[in-house]
Amino acid sequence: MSLRTPDGMAVGTQSIDSSLAAAAEDHALVRVPQEERKGGWYLALSPVSVATALVLFAIGGFAVVLAGFKVGLITGLVIAVIGAVLGKTLSMIAFRSGVSSTITSRFFGFGQKGSVFGSAIFAFMIIGFLAMESALLYEGTLLMFGWSDSWLTRILLYGALTLAWIALAIFGLKVALRSSLVMIVITLAVALYMVIYIYGIQGNNPMDVFNYTGVVEGGFWAKFSAAFAVMGATAGTISLVTMDFARYARTQRDVTILALAGPLVQNILMLVLGALIVIGGMPQVIDYLMARDAGLTPEAAAAAAGGFVMSNTGAFFVIFAGWIGFITIYASQAKAQAINAYSGSLSLVNMIDALTGWSPGRAVMVVVANIIGLLMIGAGILHQFAAYLAYLGCWTLAMSAIMIADYFFVRRHIKEHNFDRVENWNWAGLLTLVASSVIGMGLMYTGIFDLGFIISGVLALVLYPALRKLLPEGTGTTFTSKSEAMVEAL
């Protein structure tokens, strides 16, 4: 028996390496065999690796700066619950089907060719994070060496980073995944060292952080909305990442462990660490900037330090931990960036396969993904960070809700459905995706409701079953065989 790899090569199942890295390579377009399933704690390392990246550290710290510690923590708990429920629900679909979120969307929600939209959303999400992480590393490197931001610096540094991510995604993914636990421990250890330094050595009072009320004026709802607008959209992001790894789970218990790990670390642990370091360390960052830039006023230094929270998060590691902090952010980000570049390339492979039936080489798509990431950096994605997350959340939450609605609400009424035929275009799902996402984005853009991505998710959950009755299977589309929708039968 042989299976098709993303590069279109046939390999014997007996020759497949059982490591997660090799399985991810070999089963991009097929179902994961039972003998290659993994335990929940092992699988949880991947979403936790994503959840402990610089960009999530920035999100947690910025949410507390806006809303204050208490409201920020409450917001984090609420989003953690939403992310865990969403992740568990989506992960059960992936666990039972054994395929990735992109392939799952072919059978549930969008159809064989319609799943190209799911691939595009996932690719845009992952490549966007690839771009933002590179931009954060770039800013941290400038600070570490005192370099100026010039076109020559951008070309050389971004070029070196891009080549590194391409090499890691193509040749070093196994090493990156196997070192995940070590890198997570090192990242958290350095963060704890910074907390100990700020409060134990410098003598700052942690109660100043716990009692911090935030810069947003108004009552609880105003602060909660501000923090939720920054953090909430990532619930769909971490859920889709978790879903991709859930296809490797052995049991439902493993699925639960996997679904809880990412949201809890991302929305609680990183929020607390981000708050303690960003707020408690802000005075020293201001002093550092005033010492570095002669003539800089305290007000200007405070404004610049505040901007570091979102645009130069690595600065806190560099200023407090020097070379150790600098090396740490690079080592930890290398692991996350390898996964981002790899996942982005697979989404692009799946997207082309869904449209044409041709699977381009993964190495080619890794290069394409990184080029797209550079274009995003050039477009200023780092300075549109909050807006990017919010608008992206409309699409990811709507996409997630459609798959959930199709699997649990629509398909459960179908007694016999073995997927001998798969729609090329599920118009009910596609119309729901566009309508729900556009409405949510419109609410945010006009200022009517800042949490429009929540509306997108809820609306998709309700709208899809109704549209599916009006546009039942086969409406305005042709069918394909399940062997074409997925190499190995579902």
Please provide a written account of the structure.
This is Cytosine permease. InterPro entries: CodB (IPR030191). It comes from Corynebacterium lemuris. By secondary structure, this protein is mostly helical. It has one domain (2-485): Hydantoin permease. Helices cover 73% and strands 2% of the residues. It contains 21 helices and 4 strands. It has helices spanning 20-26, 40-43, 45-51, 54-67, 69-97, 101-107, 116-145, 151-171, 173-178, 180-201, 207-210, 220-231, 234-246, 252-292, 298-311, 314-356, 362-378, 385-410, 427-445, 452-470, 482-485; strands at residues 2-4, 10-12, 421-423, 479-481. The strands form 2 sheets. The chain has a two-stranded antiparallel sheet. It has a two-stranded antiparallel ribbon with strand order 3-4. A hairpin with a 5-residue loop joins strand 1 (2-4) and strand 2 (10-12). Helix 3 (45-51) crosses helix 10 (180-201), helix 3 packs parallel to helix 14 and helix 14 packs antiparallel against helix 15. The longest helix is centred in the C-terminal third of the chain and has 43 residues, at 314-356. It is globular, with a radius of gyration of 22 Å.
List key phrases describing it:
single chain, 490 residues, mainly alpha, Hydantoin permease, two-stranded antiparallel sheet, two-stranded antiparallel ribbon, globular, CodB, membrane, transmembrane, transmembrane helix, Cytosine permease
